[in-house]
Amino acid sequence: MKKRILVSILSVLLILTVVLSGCSNSNQASSQQASEPKQGESDYPKKPVTIIVPYKPGGPVDLLSRTAAKFSESDLGQSFVIQNVDGAGGEKGFSQMLRSPADGYTLSAMTSGHITLTVMRDASYDVVNDVQPVCMVVQDDTYIVVRADDDRFNTVEDVVNYAKDNPNSFTVGTSGAGSSEHFAIIGFNKNAGVEVKPVHFGGSAEAKAAFLGGHVDAFAPSYGEVTQLVNEKKAKIIGVFAEERVEAYPDVPTFKEKGINMVLSNIRGFAVPKDTPKEVVEKLSAAFKKASEDPAYAEEMAKLGLPAKYADGEEYARMIKLQYETYKELAKEVLE
Protein backbone atom coordinates (compact mmCIF):
# COMPACT_ATOMS: atom_id res chain seq x y z
CA MET A 1 0.00 0.00 0.00
CA LYS A 2 2.77 2.43 0.96
CA LYS A 3 4.64 1.47 -2.18
CA ARG A 4 1.60 2.30 -4.29
CA ILE A 5 1.21 5.73 -2.62
CA LEU A 6 4.92 6.47 -3.14
CA VAL A 7 4.65 5.62 -6.85
CA SER A 8 1.62 7.91 -7.17
CA ILE A 9 3.45 10.80 -5.51
CA LEU A 10 6.48 10.33 -7.74
CA SER A 11 4.25 10.26 -10.82
CA VAL A 12 2.61 13.53 -9.80
CA LEU A 13 5.99 15.16 -9.17
CA LEU A 14 7.23 13.98 -12.56
CA ILE A 15 4.20 15.45 -14.32
CA LEU A 16 4.63 18.77 -12.47
CA THR A 17 8.30 18.87 -13.42
CA VAL A 18 7.48 18.34 -17.10
CA VAL A 19 4.73 20.98 -17.05
CA LEU A 20 6.86 23.55 -15.26
CA SER A 21 9.77 22.86 -17.57
CA GLY A 22 7.52 23.38 -20.59
CA CYS A 23 6.23 26.66 -19.21
CA SER A 24 9.75 27.82 -18.50
CA ASN A 25 10.90 26.97 -22.00
CA SER A 26 7.82 28.63 -23.47
CA ASN A 27 8.38 31.79 -21.44
CA GLN A 28 12.05 31.79 -22.33
CA ALA A 29 11.23 31.38 -26.02
CA SER A 30 8.63 34.15 -25.84
CA SER A 31 11.06 36.41 -24.01
CA GLN A 32 13.79 35.67 -26.52
CA GLN A 33 11.40 36.27 -29.43
CA ALA A 34 10.25 39.56 -27.95
CA SER A 35 13.82 40.71 -27.39
CA GLU A 36 14.95 39.83 -30.89
CA PRO A 37 14.55 42.88 -33.16
CA LYS A 38 12.72 42.51 -36.42
CA GLN A 39 14.90 42.71 -39.49
CA GLY A 40 15.22 46.30 -40.74
CA GLU A 41 13.84 47.87 -37.55
CA SER A 42 15.58 48.12 -34.19
CA ASP A 43 18.68 46.29 -35.43
CA TYR A 44 19.24 49.03 -38.02
CA PRO A 45 21.89 49.96 -38.97
CA LYS A 46 24.21 46.96 -39.01
CA LYS A 47 26.66 48.46 -41.50
CA PRO A 48 27.75 51.86 -42.86
CA VAL A 49 25.10 53.96 -44.62
CA THR A 50 25.74 55.54 -48.03
CA ILE A 51 24.74 59.12 -48.73
CA ILE A 52 24.64 59.87 -52.45
CA VAL A 53 25.48 63.48 -53.21
CA PRO A 54 24.05 64.03 -56.71
CA TYR A 55 26.52 66.82 -57.48
CA LYS A 56 30.27 67.33 -57.74
CA PRO A 57 32.48 67.40 -54.62
CA GLY A 58 33.10 70.75 -52.98
CA GLY A 59 29.73 72.38 -53.64
CA PRO A 60 27.24 73.44 -50.95
CA VAL A 61 25.24 70.19 -51.10
CA ASP A 62 28.42 68.14 -50.80
CA LEU A 63 29.61 70.23 -47.84
CA LEU A 64 26.30 70.14 -45.97
CA SER A 65 26.06 66.36 -46.50
CA ARG A 66 29.55 65.75 -45.13
CA THR A 67 28.95 68.05 -42.16
CA ALA A 68 25.56 66.55 -41.29
CA ALA A 69 27.01 63.04 -41.66
CA LYS A 70 29.98 63.77 -39.41
CA PHE A 71 27.82 65.05 -36.57
CA SER A 72 25.16 62.32 -36.91
CA GLU A 73 27.31 59.18 -36.97
CA SER A 74 27.71 58.77 -33.21
CA ASP A 75 23.96 58.86 -32.56
CA LEU A 76 23.21 56.55 -35.50
CA GLY A 77 25.83 54.04 -34.40
CA GLN A 78 27.37 53.59 -37.84
CA SER A 79 29.45 55.68 -40.21
CA PHE A 80 28.19 57.43 -43.33
CA VAL A 81 29.93 56.97 -46.67
CA ILE A 82 29.65 59.90 -49.10
CA GLN A 83 29.31 58.98 -52.78
CA ASN A 84 29.28 61.78 -55.36
CA VAL A 85 27.18 60.89 -58.43
CA ASP A 86 27.00 64.01 -60.60
CA GLY A 87 24.94 64.34 -63.76
CA ALA A 88 21.69 65.56 -65.33
CA GLY A 89 21.30 68.47 -62.95
CA GLY A 90 21.20 66.19 -59.92
CA GLU A 91 18.82 63.64 -61.42
CA LYS A 92 21.37 60.87 -62.04
CA GLY A 93 22.41 60.38 -58.43
CA PHE A 94 18.93 60.97 -57.05
CA SER A 95 17.45 58.35 -59.38
CA GLN A 96 20.18 55.92 -58.35
CA MET A 97 19.04 56.29 -54.75
CA LEU A 98 15.39 55.69 -55.69
CA ARG A 99 16.36 52.44 -57.47
CA SER A 100 18.27 51.15 -54.45
CA PRO A 101 16.77 48.73 -51.88
CA ALA A 102 14.35 50.44 -49.50
CA ASP A 103 16.31 49.38 -46.43
CA GLY A 104 17.77 52.68 -45.22
CA TYR A 105 21.31 51.94 -46.32
CA THR A 106 21.22 54.37 -49.25
CA LEU A 107 20.15 57.99 -48.86
CA SER A 108 20.45 60.90 -51.24
CA ALA A 109 20.88 64.56 -50.58
CA MET A 110 17.86 66.41 -51.93
CA THR A 111 17.40 70.07 -52.89
CA SER A 112 14.77 72.28 -54.45
CA GLY A 113 16.54 71.57 -57.73
CA HIS A 114 15.14 68.04 -57.61
CA ILE A 115 11.69 69.61 -57.49
CA THR A 116 12.15 72.22 -60.22
CA LEU A 117 13.51 69.80 -62.81
CA THR A 118 10.33 67.70 -62.57
CA VAL A 119 8.19 70.64 -63.68
CA MET A 120 10.60 71.80 -66.38
CA ARG A 121 10.97 68.45 -68.18
CA ASP A 122 10.10 64.77 -67.99
CA ALA A 123 11.99 63.31 -65.04
CA SER A 124 12.67 59.69 -64.09
CA TYR A 125 10.76 60.11 -60.83
CA ASP A 126 7.70 61.70 -59.26
CA VAL A 127 9.01 64.06 -56.58
CA VAL A 128 5.84 63.79 -54.46
CA ASN A 129 4.91 60.10 -54.80
CA ASP A 130 8.23 58.27 -55.34
CA VAL A 131 10.24 59.89 -52.55
CA GLN A 132 10.31 59.39 -48.78
CA PRO A 133 11.81 62.54 -47.20
CA VAL A 134 13.96 61.87 -44.13
CA CYS A 135 14.46 65.43 -42.94
CA MET A 136 15.49 68.92 -44.01
CA VAL A 137 18.79 70.27 -42.68
CA VAL A 138 19.21 73.60 -44.50
CA GLN A 139 16.72 76.24 -45.64
CA ASP A 140 18.49 78.75 -47.86
CA ASP A 141 16.50 81.86 -48.78
CA THR A 142 17.00 83.63 -52.11
CA TYR A 143 17.93 87.33 -52.19
CA ILE A 144 18.12 90.06 -54.79
CA VAL A 145 21.27 92.16 -54.55
CA VAL A 146 22.68 95.05 -56.61
CA ARG A 147 26.22 96.38 -56.69
CA ALA A 148 27.16 98.53 -53.72
CA ASP A 149 28.02 101.51 -55.96
CA ASP A 150 24.83 101.39 -58.06
CA ASP A 151 22.93 104.45 -56.84
CA ARG A 152 19.91 103.75 -59.04
CA PHE A 153 18.58 101.04 -56.73
CA ASN A 154 18.36 101.08 -52.94
CA THR A 155 14.87 99.77 -52.25
CA VAL A 156 12.32 97.31 -53.58
CA GLU A 157 10.28 100.29 -54.81
CA ASP A 158 13.27 101.53 -56.85
CA VAL A 159 13.48 98.22 -58.68
CA VAL A 160 9.73 97.91 -59.25
CA ASN A 161 9.38 101.47 -60.56
CA TYR A 162 12.36 101.08 -62.88
CA ALA A 163 11.07 97.75 -64.18
CA LYS A 164 7.63 99.25 -64.89
CA ASP A 165 9.15 102.11 -66.85
CA ASN A 166 11.73 99.90 -68.58
CA PRO A 167 10.31 96.43 -69.31
CA ASN A 168 12.96 93.68 -69.63
CA SER A 169 15.76 96.17 -68.95
CA PHE A 170 16.49 95.29 -65.32
CA THR A 171 18.54 92.07 -65.54
CA VAL A 172 19.15 89.52 -62.80
CA GLY A 173 21.81 86.81 -63.00
CA THR A 174 20.82 83.26 -61.96
CA SER A 175 22.68 79.98 -61.67
CA GLY A 176 20.67 78.50 -64.53
CA ALA A 177 17.30 78.10 -66.23
CA GLY A 178 14.90 76.23 -63.97
CA SER A 179 16.84 77.07 -60.81
CA SER A 180 15.08 78.25 -57.66
CA GLU A 181 16.33 81.79 -58.39
CA HIS A 182 14.79 81.62 -61.85
CA PHE A 183 11.42 80.70 -60.37
CA ALA A 184 11.77 83.42 -57.72
CA ILE A 185 12.16 86.02 -60.48
CA ILE A 186 9.19 84.62 -62.42
CA GLY A 187 7.15 84.90 -59.24
CA PHE A 188 8.44 88.43 -58.66
CA ASN A 189 7.30 89.49 -62.13
CA LYS A 190 3.91 87.86 -61.76
CA ASN A 191 3.19 89.35 -58.35
CA ALA A 192 4.68 92.80 -58.96
CA GLY A 193 3.22 93.20 -62.44
CA VAL A 194 6.62 93.93 -64.00
CA GLU A 195 9.05 92.39 -66.51
CA VAL A 196 12.41 91.82 -64.86
CA LYS A 197 14.67 89.78 -67.11
CA PRO A 198 16.45 86.69 -65.71
CA VAL A 199 19.83 85.99 -67.30
CA HIS A 200 21.01 82.41 -66.84
CA PHE A 201 24.59 81.23 -66.37
CA GLY A 202 26.29 77.89 -65.91
CA GLY A 203 26.25 77.99 -62.15
CA SER A 204 26.25 80.50 -59.32
CA ALA A 205 29.96 81.32 -59.65
CA GLU A 206 29.50 82.43 -63.28
CA ALA A 207 26.43 84.48 -62.38
CA LYS A 208 28.30 86.23 -59.57
CA ALA A 209 31.25 87.01 -61.82
CA ALA A 210 28.93 88.52 -64.44
CA PHE A 211 27.22 90.58 -61.76
CA LEU A 212 30.46 91.92 -60.31
CA GLY A 213 31.68 92.66 -63.85
CA GLY A 214 28.65 94.83 -64.54
CA HIS A 215 27.11 92.54 -67.17
CA VAL A 216 23.81 92.27 -65.27
CA ASP A 217 22.12 94.73 -62.92
CA ALA A 218 21.46 92.32 -60.10
CA PHE A 219 22.20 88.86 -58.76
CA ALA A 220 19.98 86.31 -56.99
CA PRO A 221 22.32 84.62 -54.52
CA SER A 222 21.89 82.34 -51.53
CA TYR A 223 22.68 83.29 -47.94
CA GLY A 224 26.36 82.31 -48.04
CA GLU A 225 27.03 84.32 -51.19
CA VAL A 226 25.11 87.31 -49.83
CA THR A 227 27.15 87.29 -46.65
CA GLN A 228 30.41 87.29 -48.56
CA LEU A 229 29.36 90.04 -50.97
CA VAL A 230 28.00 92.28 -48.19
CA ASN A 231 31.02 91.76 -45.94
CA GLU A 232 33.32 92.66 -48.81
CA LYS A 233 31.14 95.75 -49.49
CA LYS A 234 30.56 94.65 -53.07
CA ALA A 235 26.79 94.45 -52.90
CA LYS A 236 23.73 95.73 -51.09
CA ILE A 237 20.58 93.71 -50.50
CA ILE A 238 17.29 94.86 -52.03
CA GLY A 239 15.04 92.17 -50.53
CA VAL A 240 14.63 88.49 -49.62
CA PHE A 241 12.08 85.91 -50.79
CA ALA A 242 11.34 84.76 -47.23
CA GLU A 243 8.27 84.48 -45.02
CA GLU A 244 9.89 86.63 -42.34
CA ARG A 245 12.92 88.91 -42.13
CA VAL A 246 16.21 87.08 -41.78
CA GLU A 247 17.79 87.36 -38.34
CA ALA A 248 21.21 88.23 -39.78
CA TYR A 249 19.72 91.08 -41.83
CA PRO A 250 16.87 92.59 -39.78
CA ASP A 251 16.80 95.80 -41.86
CA VAL A 252 16.28 93.94 -45.13
CA PRO A 253 12.57 93.68 -46.06
CA THR A 254 10.93 90.58 -47.41
CA PHE A 255 9.32 90.97 -50.81
CA LYS A 256 6.12 89.67 -49.25
CA GLU A 257 5.87 92.62 -46.86
CA LYS A 258 6.30 94.91 -49.86
CA GLY A 259 3.20 93.43 -51.49
CA ILE A 260 5.05 90.95 -53.72
CA ASN A 261 3.63 87.69 -52.39
CA MET A 262 6.50 85.41 -53.37
CA VAL A 263 8.19 83.16 -50.83
CA LEU A 264 10.74 80.65 -52.14
CA SER A 265 13.82 79.09 -50.61
CA ASN A 266 16.17 76.27 -51.45
CA ILE A 267 15.21 73.48 -49.06
CA ARG A 268 17.98 70.92 -48.64
CA GLY A 269 17.86 67.63 -46.84
CA PHE A 270 17.90 63.86 -47.28
CA ALA A 271 15.54 61.30 -48.79
CA VAL A 272 15.21 57.53 -49.21
CA PRO A 273 13.08 55.28 -51.45
CA LYS A 274 9.34 55.44 -50.78
CA ASP A 275 8.88 52.01 -49.13
CA THR A 276 11.65 52.36 -46.55
CA PRO A 277 10.32 51.16 -43.14
CA LYS A 278 8.99 53.95 -40.96
CA GLU A 279 11.19 52.90 -38.03
CA VAL A 280 14.30 53.23 -40.18
CA VAL A 281 13.32 56.68 -41.47
CA GLU A 282 12.62 57.85 -37.93
CA LYS A 283 16.00 56.57 -36.70
CA LEU A 284 17.82 58.44 -39.46
CA SER A 285 15.79 61.57 -38.85
CA ALA A 286 16.47 61.40 -35.11
CA ALA A 287 20.22 61.17 -35.72
CA PHE A 288 20.21 64.29 -37.91
CA LYS A 289 18.00 66.09 -35.39
CA LYS A 290 20.46 65.29 -32.61
CA ALA A 291 23.26 66.72 -34.73
CA SER A 292 21.26 69.90 -35.38
CA GLU A 293 21.12 70.54 -31.63
CA ASP A 294 24.92 70.55 -31.32
CA PRO A 295 26.32 74.14 -31.18
CA ALA A 296 29.48 72.96 -32.95
CA TYR A 297 27.34 71.72 -35.86
CA ALA A 298 25.55 75.07 -36.18
CA GLU A 299 28.88 76.88 -36.04
CA GLU A 300 30.42 74.72 -38.77
CA MET A 301 27.37 75.11 -41.02
CA ALA A 302 27.48 78.89 -40.51
CA LYS A 303 31.16 78.98 -41.53
CA LEU A 304 30.16 77.24 -44.76
CA GLY A 305 27.47 79.86 -45.39
CA LEU A 306 24.70 77.31 -44.89
CA PRO A 307 21.73 78.39 -42.72
CA ALA A 308 21.04 75.21 -40.76
CA LYS A 309 17.37 74.49 -40.07
CA TYR A 310 15.99 71.08 -39.16
CA ALA A 311 12.54 69.78 -40.10
CA ASP A 312 11.38 66.19 -39.70
CA GLY A 313 10.30 64.01 -42.61
CA GLU A 314 6.61 64.88 -42.36
CA GLU A 315 7.24 68.63 -42.41
CA TYR A 316 9.86 68.28 -45.14
CA ALA A 317 7.36 66.33 -47.28
CA ARG A 318 4.79 69.11 -46.80
CA MET A 319 7.33 71.73 -47.91
CA ILE A 320 8.32 69.65 -50.95
CA LYS A 321 4.69 69.29 -52.05
CA LEU A 322 4.06 73.01 -51.58
CA GLN A 323 7.14 73.93 -53.63
CA TYR A 324 6.16 71.45 -56.33
CA GLU A 325 2.71 73.02 -56.65
CA THR A 326 4.21 76.53 -56.68
CA TYR A 327 6.88 75.68 -59.25
CA LYS A 328 4.38 73.82 -61.43
CA GLU A 329 2.20 76.92 -61.63
CA LEU A 330 5.15 79.24 -62.30
CA ALA A 331 6.57 76.88 -64.94
CA LYS A 332 3.60 77.71 -67.16
CA GLU A 333 5.08 81.19 -67.54
CA VAL A 334 8.30 79.64 -68.90
CA LEU A 335 7.01 76.73 -70.96
CA GLU A 336 4.10 78.42 -72.73
What would you say this structure looks like, in words?
The protein is of the alpha/beta class. It has 2 domains: 49-139 and 266-335, D-Maltodextrin-Binding Protein, domain 2, CATH 3.40.190.150; 143-258, Periplasmic binding protein-like II (D-Maltodextrin-Binding Protein, domain 2), CATH 3.40.190.10. It is 46% helix and 18% strand. It is built from 11 helices and 11 strands. The protein has helices at 2-35, 60-76, 91-99, 113-120, 156-165, 180-192, 204-212, 223-231, 278-292, 295-303, 313-335; strands spanning 49-53, 80-84, 106-110, 131-141, 143-147, 171-174, 197-200, 218-219, 235-240, 265-273, 308-312. Strands 2-1-3-10-4-11 form a 6-stranded mixed sheet, sandwiched between helices. A 5-stranded mixed sheet has the order 7-6-8-5-9, with helices on both faces. Helix 2 crosses helix 9 and helix 4 packs parallel to helix 11. The chain starts with a helix and ends with a helix.
Which descriptors would you attach to this protein?
336 residues; alpha/beta; D-Maltodextrin-Binding Protein, domain 2; 6-stranded mixed sheet; 5-stranded mixed sheet
Record the SSE blueprint.
Elements: H1 2-35, E1 49-53, H2 60-76, E2 80-84, H3 91-99, E3 106-110, H4 113-120, E4 131-141, E5 143-147, H5 156-165, E6 171-174, H6 180-192, E7 197-200, H7 204-212, E8 218-219, H8 223-231, E9 235-240, E10 265-273, H9 278-292, H10 295-303, E11 308-312, H11 313-335
Parallel strand pairs: 1-2, 1-3, 6-7, 6-8
Antiparallel strand pairs: 3-10, 4-10, 4-11, 5-8, 5-9
